[in-house]
Amino acid sequence: MFFRYNKLIKYALRIKKKDVKKVNTLGCITKTLAQATLPHTNPKLPIGTLYSRSTGQLIFSIIPTSPNYGIPYGSIPRLILAWICSEVIKTKKRILFLGKSQSDFLKQINLHNNGRDIARFREQALRLFKSVISIEYNDEKKNNFSSRLLISESSHIFWNTKTRKKKWESSLELSDGFFREIIDASVPIDIRIFHALSKSPLAMDIYTWLVYRIFILQKSKLSSVFISWINLKFQFGVGYPNTNQGFRDFKKRFRLRLKEVLFFYKKAKRHVRENKIGLIITSCDLHISKLNSKNKND
């Protein structure tokens, strides 16, 4: 753990020295994806089975559309989604081309051009693109609002296997709904930080969630928000058993990963406080002001 912390602290110091826009690592994530997180590990459901969980007010489901692929999980789908959102903001296009080459694209999502990473990418990409993400709000204020998010309407992902010329002809056509959500409701992130935290899907989720929570505080002009440990476990700790020990294990792991996130978002460090039943987040400077801002991140 000390080695990991030391490495992340050094990386955070390097990132701080270079403005996010000058090094072209300004990215974004949609508000839906900041609230509803994919499984961290393989849920080990039968292929084609719906995955669902509830936070009490929010029901999050992943619905496979193919009998051949399971539920996307882990860091790779998160890296792909962040790349998609960021690319849309840059290009303003629904049809995205996945780099100049296979190696180029894998590098963009922090993977290596070797057999293991190619296989992992292929499997998780197909799981992701052949799924529908469903969000339902069950509180009275939201009037039982529901939203279904289809990532892609059409994809052509070509992996080099036997061709001599090693052609790369991969593209992705986003659904109009997902494209609109990226354009209209995205929160800025630093892709360098997302990659730095990619050894832990939980840390990646806490990063986007914290950035989004503080963004909402500023937008709503509220001074603080309270989130109970129970709701945090529903949202982030689905893999932990619903026992006292499972709850303690989740809290311990969440604290560790939150500490890692705060290495990179130092402005928020004094604005995230813990008590016996949850976290209190108070309003502070945004991580990155706007997608078109010239302010530096911290």
UniProtKB/TrEMBL annotation:
Pfam short name (any one): RepA_C
Classification via InterPro entries: RepA_C
Keywords per UniProt: Plasmid
Name of the protein this chain belongs to: Plasmid replication initiation protein RepA
Species of provenance: Candidatus Profftella armatura
